[in-house]
Please model this.
Amino acid sequence: MIFYKKFYFLIFGVFFIAHSVLANTVVNDDISYITEFATLDDDIASASLVWTLNSKSKEQNRKLQAFLAAKINGPIGRKSVREIIDFRIINDINFSIDATPNHLILTVQSQKESFALAASHTNEILKNTAINETWLKRKNYSFRNISSTKLRTPELLENELISYVLFTGSDEIISKDSINLEISRRPNQIIFNARNFEFNDITNILLKDLPTYNAILNDEANKPFHQLPHGVIHLEDEEATETLIFIGTVQSFNSLIHQAETNTLFKYMGYGAGSEMFRIIRQEKRASYDPRSHFNQISEKLAFTGLSATVASETWDEIHNLMYDIYNNTRMGLNTRQGLKNSHNIVINELITNLRKKPNWLVKRYLELHPDQPPETSINLELINASFDVSPDLLNNKAVKILSDPSNLISIIIGGKINNKIRKDDSSYCQLPKGKSLTFCLEKLTKAQDSR
Amino acid sequence: MQASFFIASDIYNSHLNNLLYLDGNTAQSFSQSSYIAINGDIEYTASLIPFDGVTLEDAYKSLRMSIKNLDTNNITQKEIEIARSKNVAYTKSLAQSPRAYLDFFQNLGSDGLPPVSPKEFSKMIANAPNEDILKIISAFVADSPSAVILAKLDNNL
Model:
């Protein structure tokens, strides 16, 4: 049985067509489900193999990804790594690894003409259960936790906060052997993506001789997500010449249009040279090289949002206030019409780039909706339509309802001197001791706020 | 010339990559780049992060020895052909995006070489004489002045 659903988008007078094809064909037995999309650029085909595999902690999640990375990068039988790398370059075969709290995802991508070869190479990797210890060590190191209190980049801070929200279980050590066994079984779902391409045989090539059994690791459900507390977390460091400032939160949305509108407003505040953060903090104030906004969807109708900048330490409280001003002004609807239009275009461009070039983005959106198996009827990626439905002209009137109240935001300051003006009671202020991770303060504030 | 240079640097880079990263445990990560400077010199940069348990001094020593002892006398015909195919695959992949196309021109431009289309370039790759390729590799291997930066973090990340 095959169901078709087509979307047509009109952008800048040009039709962009993406159709998702859903086949709920069960391959041989009831283990792997196949779903097909057709959104990628013309020459490219991809297959994402998805193991349903719960990670209780971020550390477990890292271990799983590192193991899979070692499996992909190490030697296979008598084939040396050099031989394997050359083969991949010559045939333009690329692998990428991704994970959610519930899934481990391996995506293989190549040009359509060599995709059958890419699939049989993938099968060869999956069947190889001998893991090279050097590569495992190397990959465990690459996937290690780097604390944002030490290497103070907005990217690491974002990752650390998202991990805190998503991974809420206890960190039990899982053995190498059990990970190996888990990844040696057939993936639970396979998600293909290519335009005008028949994937018929590819499934069988990918799955050839892979054993089928149920997931063994962590088969109980994950605990619910954490929420970020509000208030201020400050890691004081008088010696640091630069200070990283973040204000933001994890926001849940009551509708997909609400999500797309929020995304548009965050683009307005801090995406690229036309944004408020850039205009005011970088150009007018010359205070920071990297001011920007964050909007990262982390689950269904849930996104990590915020503003960040790295500034000279002595100016941090001034810029921190300024960032609140930018947030409040946008929330009050004091935004230019053209700016909002541009920001909406950025949202659309990003969406199209994701659909055309980033198969993992679509796989993650799909898995949020259908974590275990494809739906009986059709896949409804309403987010795509909702993004087009945003009316930039209406945003100024609605902004106050779209964005969270500023009192819900968390400020995280890493570096600089203590500012007594924002130092309040223990339920909204936490000074992070040196050497402790952010979790220390996140938990402390959450506890204090829950008991009120 | 530019085609021979691309193939030669691929072979040179692969040799060192094998020694220090793929088959050896010296490097956690290893990256290299080479280009032709304005005066026609070849400029080569390598950056290496030592593998867990390897000291900075030992890693530096291995890197130096690998460069010094690199035996280019037994570069095989097969090796040259693989490097050739890799470069053909690279030019083919450029058609996938305007960005990649632009990067290709920048890549040629930064070597001070005139722009040619990827299609033309792939012909040049196919026709690059072995002799030229080996000559460029020997230029890579020849003694030359070099600068070294060793850097250590003062805390454990």
Remarks:
- The first strand of chain A starts at residue 2 and ends at 11.
